[in-house]
Amino acid sequence: MAGRNRHARRLSAAGFTLIELLVAISILAIIAVLGWRGLDSIVRARVLLTAEMEQTRGMQLSFAQLENDCAHLVDATNFPGREVLSAVGARLVLVRNVFEENQPTRLQVVVYRVQDGVLKRREMLPTRELAVLDQDWQNALADAEVSPAIALQSQVTGFDMRTWKEGENGWRNGGSEVAGKDNPAIVAPGIPSKNGKLTGLEIAIQISGRELPVTKVFLLGAV
After folding, report:
1. Which of 18, 84, 116, 188 has its C-alpha lying 20 to 30 A from 126's C-alpha?
2. Total domain count for the chain?
3. Are residues 88 and 8 part of one domain?
4. Are residues 26 and 122 in the same domain?
């Protein structure tokens, strides 16, 4: 009898009590929850970082392309009576020079437009025919989809443009470049309107989730 009691006590001492098991399970549950929260925060941070990088990449691409197009803007004095730049609303249309190796200089209509929150760039085929150029310009103003558009930036909630005209001391809201004609852009109060050449273009792009727009100034016809 005494031997059996000693054997039972040894079996009891070798096992775990119910309370000990509950405590162990609770500790494991807490560790699992903490681990899940840490993993979830890492995944969320990675998603946000990836989205931020995509926005930054799209902005850099947009501004690089805009800078190139503005630098190659044609001289309006060579095309009297024809509009070579129009910055109205959320749409920018311009005529640029196209230089390619072993090819004569050609002209190309390019349009930037915000549609459904996406900034898109569309370019017409380069040409040396003024009649074709005029038709391309009209198609661009009419938003005719005669050529494929490339999406540059998504989640765009604002696309504002201002122009700078030589001889003036302030920015204009929007504007156009036509040789021999006054610019119909809205001039800020106190700034005298002059029939000069547009030399600068300021573009501010507002992205969803950002407090302030990203703004950059481009020289027109710098090349």
Report:
1. 116
2. 2
3. no
4. no
Q: Could you tell me if 140 and 190 lie in one domain?
A: yes
93 with 16, same domain: the answer is: no
Q: What is the dihedral of CA 73, 148, 202, 61, to 10 degrees?
A: -100
Global confidence as pTM = 0.73
Residues 60-85 pLDDT 10s: 889 999 999 999 999 988 888 889 99
User: Using one digit for the tens of pLDDT, what is the confidence trace for 28-50?
Assistant: 777 777 777 766 677 776 766 66
Instruction: List the domain range (segments joined by +) for residue 82.
Output: 60-219
Query: Are residue 164 and residue 65 in the same domain, yes or no?
Result: yes
Residues 28, 114 within the same domain: no
